[in-house]
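How a chain folds remains the central question behind the approach discussed here. In the encoding step, the backbone of a single protein was reduced to a row of integers, each denoting a local shape. We regard such an encoding as a compact summary of how the chain folds. The sequence in question and its structure tokens are set out directly beneath this paragraph:

___
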Amino acid sequence: MNIPANLLKGKKVLLGVSGSIAAYKSLELTRLFIKAGAEVRVVMSDAAKRFVGPLSFETLSRNRVLDETSESWADDHNHIGCAAWADLFVIAPCTANTIAKLSNGIADNLLTQAALAYPGLKLIAPSANTHMLHNPIIQAALKMLQVANYEVVSTQTKELACQTTGDGAMAEPLEIFWHGARILLREAFWEDRRVIVTGGGTLEKIDDVRYLSNFSSGKMASALAAALFLRGADVNLIATRREAELPRSLHKIDVDSSAEMLEYLADSVRIAKKGKMSRPSLIRDEPVHLIQKKPYLFMAAAVSDYVPAFAQSGKLKKEAIGSTWSLELKQNSDLLATLDKEGITTVAFKAEMDPETAAANAAALIERKGVDAVCLNLLQGSESFGTADNQVDFITAEASVTLPRMDKLSLAMAILDQARAL
């Protein structure tokens, strides 16, 4: 997924790097934040410098690296000044040693001193040998940090530097970036709000090797899900096709047919409309109850209008079919009309090709299917599918707003700004 160059424009990120072999991945993390428009400063422990030199981070960030040899009190290039400067403090990789120090308030190097001095929410990406990470002391330290203004990006299970396979590898730089951007961009309106997004063209089975579908790529739905994740929503993406580089913690359900999509969609809508959400307490086993906000549904999937009347098992042989094939189709059920939309704000997506009738057809959808708004996408042809950018008209019963052509993640952010008013 393309990350807009202005996504984090004006944001300031302090990146802490501790002594792990994963330190080389922090160079890519630095690049991602800078590519998104953020300014980055780096603070390194002496142990980290044994793996990656400060010059590499200075080259990417265009800022001096803060370490034991460069700290200055003539300006803000010190652990107090950098902590006050930053909008976000990320420690990646965060070793078991650093985790233990942070949880006990030990500040014996510049990185841990900066962490103590930074008052906001801090993001850490652990990196350690499996046995070190799962040592009861380190697990207790991680739980302590999560109630002390720290957020933890989960580790991966893969082959580690010690040539054993297990849990403990640092999350990929893109995953850490997603979580950092979410902290910087979350909004009170969307935070903890349940939102369902559907996407992709449905695949309707003819036999076990053939299907009917359309050109919908699922990219717009993926962009919407990513934008909602960044705004802090509790997102569920139900799609036939989607982008591969979405946040791991974003809930995804992969489906094929419209019938399968409807089954999961109906369950998701029912769950989303329940009275109160709860999540496990970080201190005890009691749930933490959250105020339920009205859920949203974004129907961006391209659902087949017709499906095969009689799906076959196995593979139909062309010798048995003959020189021509008349495939019998039946009208598909209307997912949007079938759903119980009471208590959920619904935004439909409609693709049209005739500019003369497109707006009227989209506006008619509001009353006919009982939705709150429609995003009208005027297509030029099959080449309009799968593009990196798009433009839509956001239509309600009262007004129509044209959102100009832009990359799809930026467009998704603009759609969310309009949807807030529904």
